[in-house]
Write a structure and sequence with these properties.
Length: 716
Amino acid sequence: MDASQPEPAGALLTGGFRDGPFVGLHYQTPSLEGTTDEDGRFFYKAGEAVTFFIGRLCIGTADAAPHLTLADLGGGDLVGGPDLTLPATVNRARFVQSLGREADLRGGVVIDKTVDDIASAHAQDISFEIDTESFEKAAPVRAVFRELGLRFRGAAEARNHLRRALAGIKVLRNERIPTRDGSYLVADVFCPVDAEPCPVIMRQGVYGRAFEAGSIFKEADRDASEERESAWFDGDPDGIPELLRYSENAVSANASAWVPRGYVVIRVDARGVGSTPGRLEPFSKQEALDYYDAIQWAAEQPWSNGNVGLYGGSYNATVQWNVAALHPPALKAIAPLASDCDGYRDLAYPGGIFLANYRRWWWEEMVMRASGSGEAVDLIGGLISHPWDDDYYRGEGVLSANFASIDIPVLTAVSQTMMLHGRAGFEAFSQLSSPSKQLLILDAAYTSYMYQDCLPHEEAFFDRFLKGKEPEEEPPAVRAVMRTGGGKFEWRDETAWPVPGTEYRELFLDAGSPHGHGSITAASPGRIEVAAYSADARASAPELPMAVFESAPLDEGIELAGHFRATLWVSSTSSDADLYVALRVMDGEKEVAYQTRDPESVAPLTWGCLKVSHRVLDPERSTAERPWHTHRREDAMPLLPDEVVKVEVEMMAATGRVAAGYRLRVEISPAEGRGANPDWERGYDDAYHRGAVNRLFTGGAFPSSVTIPVVPRRAG
């Protein structure tokens, strides 16, 4: 029969519950009655209403349809879909779901004679039409579950299960993934209800599988996670950190976005996280091998079509590089968005200066709160004991990315000028051997871009490489947030990075200005001048000592997009010095803010830092865009008192439109300046800061400068 034609009068139709199956549920229509079968199916005729019972307890009535949920049983028409805040809806869902024996209800609910009898005994005293708190406390409700020996599920938990069912999502909790050494990882799997095998989007991480972040060790943890999930879907982000505000689980794929599109989403706990046994070893070889095993396991499951992609930000991005280099056969594409790649230069010692407080915070507040085994590598101790780039950062402790060995499609992103995640995407884009690679240049507050602005880009990427669906038009190789000032931005698409036609314009510093600070000029001053400032940032607090240089107002506007660097001639009265270089833009006496989604930020347009004793360059890895310091112990070059040396400081790649009339301002200081997170201070060695004076030399034989990437302006 043509499916477009109506069913013949009196034809028997089949229905079921998307939030079930509910087996053994009694039902009645005007023309028939029965009990749902082993698949949870009921039968009806077109146009009929159907009422459901557990024993003599009426659960509710709905217009019969092929697919129902418990939210449909309130009776009457529901404009715009079920309202999951209605007390009767929540009460009904809690009652029926609580009859299930499995925490995730993967097998649904089986209603046997015992359940029927106990429900019938209390039926006349149970009403779903009361507020949720009263229902939870109602003596007959409590009696039913006490007599059955079952847990009465929370209101948030019931709502979350209903919401997923309405979106066509089924969750399989605490799946065990075997590893090659006989152990296992634990994962949550979110898959479409009643769908053909689908491609998989996965992440393996250390932040746990609870909603937002963390692990579930006890009942209170589960309830808190369910409450956070319910509040998040109600659009209540209060109290959620910016990093986690846009994701269901710490910068990984949102099941609510991807499963309805025909994907399976998997969140895997690494060893030592949550209920996964073993030793917690972030960024390690073992972690990468486990990730390989998880990818291959996912490809072999009945709900999978065999194609696996990886998606995530921050840590969940960084570890993608490590497993992709091992070439799991089922891994078809990766999306490491806002990642790091170099164990030394990104994760631990940017510019040779330890990310001290940030790494401690990350370890204690993000990682250890999810750890369950109690056994963990001493990551912070390992980083501290390896202050130079050595084999510890090439696998003995943590892994660094091997981009040249990665040959699958890659969609990567950078969070420009952030204290981390600002380098890896650029390094990857230039070194990957993949025939298909795309680069997204986001702003420092990257999560909103990752989950909102760039979601169509990400969907097209995975549709192409996991489903074989070619895009209507070829995406740009590079898509950048061009920051235009005042919190605004425009998208700029490019065919390559660095941007074709980039002019690296060298601007020279002159410490001889009579205006209280130095100047910035197009030509190197002929006369040598010196700007001296205290290296003792702690003694000078709350003021930060610095050398400051400002340009004259620009005659014409410029567009900046690319890599910046500072070439400085410096000395110190001490044996070492930390140099922090910030580039800001001024409109009169007011600074122009370039961060687009952090209105309180006073971060500079871009910045960079270097410990001067680490100034030796690797000529083979240094490029016109950025210097590459060896950071090897054997290359250490301590300062002699008042010895003048040349240093190249890598500054973060960035974008920015600078209007005519604005001025450029360069600040050089012994510690991080305005815009730094006050709780995440970098390492500060008092031994060579205390009482010391740093000097910056300009002009003549010491042409200190800052190089900026000027790109062609776009018409309009």
